[in-house]
Predict the structure.
Amino acid sequence: MSKEQQAVARARKAFETGRSKSLEHRIRQLKNLQRLFIEKQSVISDAIKKDLNKSVVGTQLYETLGLEGEIGLAIKKLKEWAAPRPVEKNLMTISDTVYIKPEPLGVVLIIGAWNYPWAVTIQPLIGAIAAGNAAVVKPSEVCVHTAKVMEDLLPLYIDKELYPVVTGGVSETQELLRQRFDHIFYTGNSVVGKLIMEAAAKHLTPVTLELGGKSPCYIDKNCDITIACRRVAWGKYTNCGQTCIAPDYILCEPSIQDQVIEEVKKAIKEFYTDNPKTCPDYGRIINQRHFKRIISMLEDSTIAVGGDNNESDCYIAPTVLRDVKPEAKVMQEEIFGPLLPILSVSSLDEAIKFINKGEKPLALYVFSSDKQVITRMADDTSSGGLLANDCLVHFSVSSLPFGGVGNSGMGCYHGKYSFDQLSHLRGCLIKQLKMEGVNSMRYPPHTTKKLGWARFFILQTVDLGWVGRMALLAILAVVAAVVLQNYFL
């Protein structure tokens, strides 16, 4: 039996003991996970520095701070989330107990990504624990140092049987995908996402796919271009552009292109100094394979800002490309690096048409002082999320679902959405063996009169208080008596 099979089997066996279902156990595990980020912050930061050249403050800001918030929210709200949820009834079920009961799915596979290795791996784990599942955690092998730290630390803080960590590369992931899970949660690109979905289909396993795509950014001439470009530069060059919701390209009218370039250039200098290579807050491309992929995108475009690079250091400067054509190489796939193409459009209508020609993106950004422009963009396009006059920050709002649509993914998470995504929302109806007269309308022989009564009872929904329910039950008792009398006389 392979190590992957053993990990899944142990997780399944641990789940079958029932201990993960206890709210006390879930909260205890979440508190232990919370303690990990307090006690081992320096170890976490050191590993990410080696993998992505993130600073200590940057690691906390973009990786662990959000996780601490998610854990705190789950601990605070867990009893509420896990409680039975009453629903509206029709007249036929007015005397019954009707509710939704969230229950654990079973054993979940979580496959993380390398760009934010803690944030995008542990967030779904928080949801899995909160929902009462077991979970096999597969960190990205691309972040070698972080994967090792995750493998070492998680078993010290949370139940190592219920939540095992499996490390390795493609072959280990393929072996995991051959096992049967109750849900698979994958963060990455659409090419691998299709392979995940294909493997899951063999067991009819549901999937959550958090993918990416080319997230557009429309800058309207009717806005504060200085502030807009400052926020776009922050969103684009954070983590060296290796962010799934980074603005992938800018759409703007030709009349403001030069101003946009100048303002982005100023913001780059403000954030990363005249020499980003020596700035502790500017990262590196994860490896040379991705370095070469990104550099190759420059072939048929004009560099307006930046362009400096060093393969041995996996360094690519914050770069802006001007007058980019739709057929340019940089526009054929998600960039996932510090290149910012600018494409000219003559109007908002043309921008919307251009966006709608492509796959639905994970995020869509619009900068404008005109509410009608923002409304048009929201109404006439589709994307996983939409943000007006800023970048990235919607990811930090736990009350918003985060996820893609179409080619950018399926399913969503964050806060209660994580809990619901990794739960089975079981519909329950508890009836008493009484008031059989009301049920007579559904039993054969079927008649027009019975159909009339059925229409009345089934098509009327009710949402009454306690007093109203008692009064209605009394009325229904009388109606049932009348129905019985009519049927059996």
About this structure: The mean pLDDT is 94.
